[in-house]
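Hey L., structure's done. Input below.
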Amino acid sequence: MKRQIRGLLSLTIIATSVACSPGLKAASLGKVVVYRNGVAYFERNAAFSDGKIQLSVPRDKVDDFLKSLTVKDAESGEALPVSFPSQNRSGSVVEITIAAPLHKKNSRVVLTYVSDSPAWKPSYRATLGDDGNIHLQGWAVVDNTSGEDWKDVLVGVGSSSAMSFKYDLWSIRNVNRQSLGGEQMFAIAPPTGTSPYNYKEQDKQIIAALSNQEALDMDSNGASPSPIVTEDAMVEAVTLSAQKSPARDRTLQEPTPEIRRAREKAALERKSKIRRKQQANQQLKDLSAKINGDHDGKYIVEGLSSGDENTARRMANILRSNLISAGVAPEKVSVRVGKAVDGQPTSTRIVRDSISGDENARPRGESHFESTKPISVEDNGSAMVSVMNKDTKGRVVYLFDRESTRGNGKYAFKALRFFNPTESTLEFGPVTVYGKGRFIGEGLTEAVSPGQSAMVPFALDHQIFVEVEQKQSDVIKGVNSVFQGWVDVNMQRIRTADYKVKNRLHEATTVYVRHTIAKGWNLESDFDEAQKLGTIHYIPVKLEAGEEKTLTVSQSTPIEFSLNLKRHRDVVRLATYLAKNNDAPQLTKTIKDIDRMFRDIENHRTKITIGEQKIVDYKKRQNELHLQLLSLKMVKSSGKLVASLKQKMIAISERIQNETIALVEHRDAIAMTRVSYLETIAELSYKPISKDKVAAVQ
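Output:
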């Protein structure tokens, strides 16, 4: 007879005769191991009857069955052949036959196979002890959807990095073969080429293309254009007017047309540069936001050049440095020099790296747990199988985690720290925590490797308060070269986080601070007792009752940067570094001279501003005196007062004249200082001598 079983691969032994043999027994299910990748392992025992074992398999399960079936003699371990009908036959059940060897008509066989199954779910219980130990229990929730009852079956659960898939083995596959004649000839075509690094120009995703001037205008600090550049037209105009008319005449004259045109031109140039810089800074903010929003992407700053690779690399480094200053993580952007189209000027562009991928994927651990006693699970029923019941080391600590999705930026979580006491990985799952005969919280644990520790937050009691203060600074570590006003330096970007931890408890405790070090950054601080999980650091802070401590965590990354000697702040940074590291005395002296020139120009500009305001005030007073003199002409007895007012008019006129002369002198000084400054940076060049050359000279 033939009996159909619904669901998973249920097996029935059928006699060769039409009627059932009196001593016939069905293949019994002995073990089931459920995995978390959608399959389960089944193990059955069966005996031959009249030299055959006939299996009834649901039609939709045949491929999985054939892919994974093993049939072995229970005594010798000999593999036995299996026969089955082709797919052309109809019916919802497929009959598969196992034939016994001629000399073993009545022996027993072991059948194993893999088929679909719902994944099992882990659940843990942790009971706190008074001696620093924790009693840890593990349970597996298993669902039986196999289509048959599991009666007195050993049930196990496991997980691994093993992959699982469906594959068609039952269908008949015919191969079309080519017919060849004796005289036919063929040209053999080459195979399609492949490459593990298939980087094509047309595959690039270009998110920005900038000229060199646009890249230079970008400044994450938002500084205004340098006053040295915008002062040119004004200095030339005032100097020109000073040569044309005597100083005494200038005091009462309106500005000449040349001065007005020069001032208007200087004002337009300054407005244009400010507007261009504002647009460039907004573009920099937009680019940094776009790059930061692409969490998985990597980007390349390409300096394109048709010949001058040094300039192209410098411009690319400047743009990368500005992106980093605007908040882009250094590991997300790298620099590369490319070839520009012939005839095109040097330019810079930002390209999304199409070959970036997840390099931090963690390997999965493996686990295997089996129940020691058989259990029964009805079809379409579920069961909780005990897979672990052990004592392990552990205690209650606090965990400050502001980085996770459900973290907290002010308070530390009460957490359970324990060690995995098994030789298998504890899968991700919920943990219920008990203490002193009561429920005290719940948490979720990540996968825990054998022998490793885990911290599971289970309560938020606001007893540990944490304030975080973050700072960032750039420190020059070395000068690579100086040429045409640009200084290529090696810099170190340092990020510091200060965690002020306050213990409000009336007892001592330990707080673990979670701090992630991004790729490309190095931890500057040394913490001997810190625990590491990849780039994540758990740093302990031991606190007495009511105590407050500050934990400082510093991390750094090297960056290439180009300083512009036309910007005073860059000159000051370089001068500060050279003063502390006097490796190049002549360069140090020259940079000090440039710094002094900047300060002299700024000093003159300050005096010009004050002098212009004085002239405005003096002229206002002069107009007031002029009106008073006009009103006193009608008064006969005002001779003395008129004489006094005229004396004041003369004094104010002299002051205006002196201030005007001083303005011209200050502007002349600015012009002369600027000429000296330009000559200095034009002649300035520097290349450090390598240690090998120094040793050779010595």
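The mean pLDDT is 77. The longest strand covers residues 464-483.

-- N.
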